[in-house]
Fold this sequence. Notes:
Blueprint: H1 35-61, H2 63-74, H3 78-86, E1 93-98, E2 102-111, E3 114-124
Antiparallel strand pairs: 1-2, 2-3
Helix pairs in contact: 2-3
Amino acid sequence: MKRRHKQTHGAKLPDRSVKVRNADLRPDVYPSVQPDTFAASASTSLVLVEQAAKFLRHVRDYKPYAAQLMDAAQRGNQSEVERLILTQVDQVKVDTTYTPDAIKVTFHRSRNDLQCCKLDINLQWNS
């Protein structure tokens, strides 16, 4: 049901617009917003997503690769797990943890020497 607004010939309606305070006048303790930094982090995160997608497509499409990765993880061969993952990604660093049932791959990338962005992917292979 649509709500009808009452006409108020000449009466002033309350201002319900959202007002943004000038960052220089903010009395609170928070730093001023930096949309450039935020946008740069988003850009870096997109690289992480693209690299993770490349890795995931390879796991999905090449069963021998998936089997090698699972076997290395189940045997606790950390260096082989990371080597296999790094054969599929080239613009990011990875960290991995795994159990006999699953693997967690953390893709991360630094920006201006700051660890700004990371993406965690959890993949299950036993239920």
